[in-house]
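Reopening this ticket.

The earlier resolution said the output was attached, but the attachment link was broken on my side. Pasting everything inline this time so it's all in one place.
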Amino acid sequence: MLRLVLIVDLRHRAVQVNRRQHEREQADFWANRLLNAARRDPDHLLHILAELAREQATLPPHFALRLIGHLYDEEAAMSPVQRWLERKLDTSLQDIIRQEQSRQAADQVSISNAIGSLRQLAQLDWKKIFESTSQVETILREDPAGVYSRMDFLSRDLCRHAVEEIARHSKRSEQEVARQAVELARRAEFQEDERKRHVGFYLINLGRQILESHFRCRVPLSLRTLRWVRRHATPVYLGSIGGVTLLILTPALALAARNIGGSGSIFVWLSLLALFPASEFAIQVVNYLVSQTLPPHILPKMSFEEGIPDEFRTLVVVPM
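Inline output:
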């Protein structure tokens, strides 16, 4: 959010810079006309000044400062323009210069601060900041197995999202769900299955149903269907391939049977020959549908950014 505010502020400053660039170009144009008139035909100077007054209904301070800068050394043009500017802006020339220079300095400081702040934000580790302020994270780090705190950020985030989902489906607070998960892990301290001593077992593993039952969660049908598909992945996958293959072969074989008459052996051979390309096409279709409809399942893992602990080290021997 802070980054967005800074970007919006920079965008606003950029629009102002673009507008002032246009004002500078306009001031350069009128300054050239006034200077040429002052040097070649002083009587025509007032006509150009009157034309300028008509076209510039509003007089931006930046335009005035730029115009003055061009005419400062040309007394013949400077005097009438100065009187016109002071009357138009209802202030003295020195005040116009001072106010515009102060504004430009303030804009430069503001832009510099915004860019510097964006650089600092880019260097911040928002993951650590988030976890240091999250109450759910603090509770889950009480994991009796001591595994949660050693997991990588993505795995911990997976657990936090599980807490969020259970809380949403049970109308309970996330803190309650996290505390109950830790409590279930503590109760399993003396059980043989070490996995049950880890808080993640009740959030992203088989123990999640225990936690959901405790809070009487109303799990959506889509999520229940997804879980059922994952529990029966192999039958669903192979059955889908078989179903699509049958769907492809049925009309083709029906048409073939009508054309070849009563020759059973030919029909069998045609069926076998058509089975291979049809099944290959069915596999491609099922793989595409699976990749498009089923979200990837993230495998939790440990974080070894600071090195592999002694208890996790191993040796791989490759025979030559």
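Reporter confirms the inline version is readable. The mean pLDDT is 84. The two ends are 57 Å apart (CA to CA).
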